[in-house]
């Protein structure tokens, strides 16, 4: 569970879900490659992946992030649930989906973000900076970025036949912030730089335990369940969920496999956290072997949903059609 000199159990939120520990292995352990090849999470120590960013505290970043605006999300509570702007209903679609954005986005200069973070008082909106590391950041940050251990991470990409790196996101979170349970359609190495984060993962085989929103919904890929206030009458299969967790400290790298559910929180009373993720596209499908793996089944289900929406041209018809297909025919 990581170096406990920097945190204790009182900083963890309590959930009614059984959790095992994600394996923690040294970078030179051959089991690291085995876990990655099998699409299983693993915490990897000693990679020096973001060693050149060890100095990325607020003071250093404020001095070197440059003058561009950066993306900051604000929330009235501690939850930062992702939503897709492109799927928010407008015009003719208004009213078909009952949706209120849970956060709002601001473009903010880094000194302003630091000022607000340092002056924040209980009851004010919480903040979470999520900025792509690109040419808009200052030259010193670019220099640090170029000195990441690219040889190591590129070797993992090549060894596992993944597609290209799509983005690196700099994440600066207030203590206690939570990114609720969701899954991504990319492979992810999640590197911790400052502070401690708790990551709870569940395999794609438990897809039905988390009741994801439909693919057309702004909260696509997000779970409908609330870990803090579980509604078992509405989401009874949540009782069958069984996850794995890890506490990530500075220098730790967590492999989050494609389509794995993950819930991430900056520890309470732990100070701000700084992290960087490395997202890679999945590799070419190649020859499919049977039975299909969990992540492959999730991809199939997503494609079925998308096909039906395109064919029916009415999202409200998708559910009734699927029920008609299944009830009495594929149910006991």
Descriptive notes:
- There is one protein chain.
- With 332 residues, the chain is an alpha+beta fold.
- 21% of the residues lie in helices and 24% in strands.
- It contains seven helices and 14 strands.
- It has helices at residues 31-37, 58-64, 110-119, 139-146, 150-159, 294-312, 318-326, and strands spanning 19-21, 24-26, 42-45, 70-75, 104-108, 126-132, 165-173, 178-182, 187-194, 197-202, 243-248, 253-256, 261-266, 273-280.
- The chain has a nine-stranded mixed β-sheet with strand order 2-3-12-9-14-7-6-4-5. It has a five-stranded mixed β-sheet with strand order 1-11-10-13-8, with no helix packed on it.
Which key terms come to mind for this protein?
single chain; 332 residues; alpha+beta; five-stranded mixed sheet
Helix-strand layout with pairing:
Blueprint: E1 19-21, E2 24-26, H1 31-37, E3 42-45, H2 58-64, E4 70-75, E5 104-108, H3 110-119, E6 126-132, H4 139-146, H5 150-159, E7 165-173, E8 178-182, E9 187-194, E10 197-202, E11 243-248, E12 253-256, E13 261-266, E14 273-280, H6 294-312, H7 318-326
Parallel strand pairs: 1-11, 2-3
Antiparallel strand pairs: 3-12, 4-5, 4-6, 6-7, 7-14, 8-13, 9-12, 9-14, 10-11, 10-13
């Amino acid at each position: 569970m990581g170096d406990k000199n920097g945190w204790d159990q009182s900083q963890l939120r309590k959930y009614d879900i059984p959790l095992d520990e994600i394996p923690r292995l040294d970078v030179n352990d051959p089991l690291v490659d085995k876990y990655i090849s099998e699409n299983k999470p693993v915490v990897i120590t000693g990679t020096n992946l973001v060693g050149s960013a060890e100095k990325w505290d607020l003071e250093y970043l404020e001095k070197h992030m440059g003058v561009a605006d950066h993306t900051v999300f604000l929330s009235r509570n501690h939850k930062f649930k992702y939503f897709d702007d492109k799927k928010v209903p407008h015009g003719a679609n208004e009213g078909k989906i009952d949706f209120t954005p849970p956060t709002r986005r601001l473009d903010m200069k880094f000194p302003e973000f630091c000022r607000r973070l340092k002056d924040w008082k209980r009851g004010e909106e919480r903040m979470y900076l999520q900025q792509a590391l690109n040419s808009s950041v200052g030259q010193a940050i670019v220099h640090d970025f170029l000195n990441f251990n690219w040889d190591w991470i590129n070797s993992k990409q090549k060894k596992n036949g993944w597609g290209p790196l799509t983005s690196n996101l700099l994440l600066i979170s207030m203590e206690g912030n939570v990114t609720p349970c969701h899954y991504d359609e990319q492979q992810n190495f999640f590197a911790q730089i400052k502070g401690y984060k708790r990551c709870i993962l569940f395999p794609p085989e438990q897809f039905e335990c988390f009741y994801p929103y439909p693919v057309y919904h702004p909260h696509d890929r997000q779970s409908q369940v609330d870990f803090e206030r579980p509604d078992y009458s509405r989401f009874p299969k949540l009782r069958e969920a069984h996850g794995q967790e890890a506490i990530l400290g500075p220098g730790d790298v967590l492999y989050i496999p494609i389509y794995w559910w993950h819930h991430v929180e900056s520890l309470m009373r732990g100070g701000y956290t700084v992290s960087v993720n490395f997202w890679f596209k999945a590799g070419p499908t190649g020859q499919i072997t049977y039975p299909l793996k969990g992540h492959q089944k999730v991809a199939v289900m997503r494609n079925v949903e998308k096909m039906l929406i395109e064919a029916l041209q009415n999202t409200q018809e998708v559910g009734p059609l699927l029920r008609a297909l299944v009830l009495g025919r594929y149910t006991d």
